[in-house]
Amino acid sequence: MGRIAFQEFFTDDSIAPEDQSPLNKVLTNKYFATILTLLLCYALSRAGYASIWPLFGSANQLLSALALIACAVFLKKTKRQGAMLWGPMVIMLRRHICGSGFKDHGAGDRTFRPVCFRQCPAAGIRSASSDSGRDCSL
């Protein structure tokens, strides 16, 4: 899929394939695009995988929430039953918002910024608007 997206990015449909520039011919070659895509994926996995993965997970949950919202709006507009989508939609939005709040400070110290949970020093969760005397059961 990455190769096809890479090729489509450099493909110009207004120019005949034989009239394309040599650079454009190389960039749209399926073998070159495959090798370059694999090399970029390998470089990302070696250099920035740990920093990109939380962003990917959060974006994936947001995308699922947006798809559920779109389906719920469609069902509402067509006067069909759509209440069964509201629960998963709220859960996915909450997971996205809460999951985006975690920031890893190294050595397993995870600090939580939004107010999705209360403070729990035993679990390493701190929040600005929480009571320190509360029970740590989440």
Structure characterization notes:
The chain has 138 residues and is mainly alpha-helical. It is built from 5 helices and 2 strands, in the order αααααββ. It has helices at residues 2-10, 22-27, 30-47, 49-77, 86-100; strands at residues 102-104, 110-112. Strands 1-2 form a two-stranded antiparallel sheet. Helix 1 (2-10) crosses helix 3 and helix 4 (49-77) packs antiparallel against helix 5. The longest helix has 29 residues, at 49-77. The two termini are 40 Å apart.
Offer a quick outline of the entry.
The protein has 138 residues and is mainly alpha-helical.
Layout of SSEs?
Elements: H1 2-10, H2 22-27, H3 30-47, H4 49-77, H5 86-100, E1 102-104, E2 110-112
Antiparallel strand pairs: 1-2
Helix pairs in contact: 1-3, 4-5
The residue fraction in helices comes out at: 55-70%
Q: Which spans have pLDDT < 50 for at least 5 consecutive residues? A: 112-120, 127-138
**Order of helices and strands, N to C?**
HHHHHEE
Shape: flat
Structural class of the helix and strand makeup?
mainly alpha
Q: What oligomerization state is this entry in?
A: single chain
* Biggest β-sheet strands, sense, barrel: 2 strands, antiparallel
Mean model confidence by pLDDT? 74
- The end-to-end distance, rounded to whole angstroms, is 40 Å
Strand tally: 2
How much β-strand is present in the residues?
under 5%
Arrangement of strands in the largest sheet: 1-2
Radius of gyration: 23 Å
In DSSP terms, counting alpha (H) and pi (I) runs of 4 or more, how many helices? 5
